[in-house]
Amino acid sequence: MPPKPTAPPAARSSEESTRPPTRTNPYRRLFALPGTRAFTAGNLIARLPQGMFGVSAVVMIAGVRGSYALAGAVTATGLAATAVTAPWVARLVDRYGQARVAVPATVCAVLGSLALVLCVRGGAPDWTLFAAYAATATTPNTGGMSRARWAHLLKGDSEALHTANSFEQAADELCYMLGPVLAAFLTGTFFPEAGTLVAAVLLLTGVLVFAAQRSTEPPPRRRTPAKAPLRAPGMPAQLAVCLAMGAVFGAMEVVTVAFADAQGHRPAAGVALGLQAAGSCVAGLVYGLVRPAGPARRRLPWCVAAMTVMMTLPLLAASLTGSLVLLSAALLVAGTATAPTMVTNMTLVQERSPEGRLNEGMTLAVTGLLGGIGCGSAAGGWVVEHVSPTAGYAVPVGAAALALLISLAGLAFTRRSVRPAGH
């Protein structure tokens, strides 16, 4: 006899109706969480200037002072100061909370940017430019703080966190793609200081909007573990991977500019590099739609291997054809391997950072990337200068291969030293 409709089936149907459908777009489910749209909007506004400050400072200093060497030295000093200051700021964020630390740190950075503008425009001694730009090193790692919020909100949901990390990587690529373009437009259309001033306003506005979303902020940890992220199991190898991957990006940028300049089309280098970032941005969004197979520590070597193979495409396009158009197409395809690799890498950084020191761990990863960018730029520039721009494309391939070797060594080490959970 067929069962009668009773309350339990109704209750079950009501319970099932509250569950998100399995085919729902993961990004739609992600931003259905309360407060996520607001903090993401503020974070994107604050993150866009990261791709603007360097270009704006170079154009402003070189345009007013007439020295690219001075402009390059000032921005290099800023990167060095950031490498020292950023982990310290991140440690304070973990200990006292994002809002309490990020806002005053941003105010200090904005004041440094304004001081730079005044010093450049007012004809102050060169040393004041270095001091002013070094003050901008207190800029908080907004991307890391956003990832920390997702890790807090999605704790225990690895699939949703994978989607969130994929979105954040796509956002990084988008901001670094649009930032230099916006900076070049502002400095070229209005006046040399316009890019720095607009970037400072965007940074302060975005951080204020982001910090105001207190409901999604991870709770501060006044008593953090004694073990620093740098000493956590697997983290040294992970940061070494970040350093090598940063060298890929730094070398690719310098070599592409030199290659385009050798052909008399230097402005086209921005388009070519923008296509690489666009490929990575799209790949990041698509990667967030798929379910990752296996743990991140096993996926990383495969991702880095794919990135190594993809980085040979620009080398082949430059050496076999010499065509800037085909090189741009190769960079677009090569960029599709960047986001999955970076997403997997940041997932591992999140997993290996000690509890209560997540912002510090992710900021160390960003610091490693910045250091690698500097090393890659220097290596790529040396090869371009002493061999040829075409040969320079071998540097990103070598850096990616080095990242692959480090990731394989790290995987072998963790297999020996870390037991699976439950054993």
Shape: globular
Order of helices and strands, N to C?
A: HHHHHHHHHHHHHHHHHHH
- N/C terminus separation: 49 Å
Number of helices: 19
CATH class of the largest domain: Mainly Alpha
Strand content: under 5%
Give a description of the structure.
This protein has 423 residues and is mainly alpha-helical. The chain has helices at residues 7-18, 26-30, 36-47, 53-65, 68-96, 98-122, 126-135, 142-153, 158-189, 194-211, 235-262, 268-287, 296-310, 312-320, 324-335, 338-352, 358-386, 389-392, 394-417. It folds into 2 domains: 36-220, MFS general substrate transporter like domains (Growth Hormone, Chain: A); 231-417, MFS general substrate transporter like domains (Growth Hormone, Chain: A). 77% of the residues lie in helices and 0% in strands. Helix 16 packs antiparallel against helix 17. The termini are far apart. Residues 1-22 and 418-423 have low confidence and may be disordered.
Topology:
Blueprint (H helix, E strand, L loop, with lengths): L6 H12 L7 H5 L5 H12 L5 H13 L2 H29 L1 H25 L3 H10 L6 H12 L4 H32 L4 H18 L23 H28 L5 H20 L8 H15 L1 H9 L3 H12 L2 H15 L5 H29 L2 H4 L1 H24 L6
List keywords for this structure.
Growth Hormone, Chain: A; 19 helices; 423 residues; disordered C terminus; mainly alpha; single chain; disordered N terminus; 2 domains; globular
Summarize the structure.
By secondary structure, this protein is mostly helical. The protein is built from 19 helices and no strands. The longest helix has 32 residues, at 158-189.
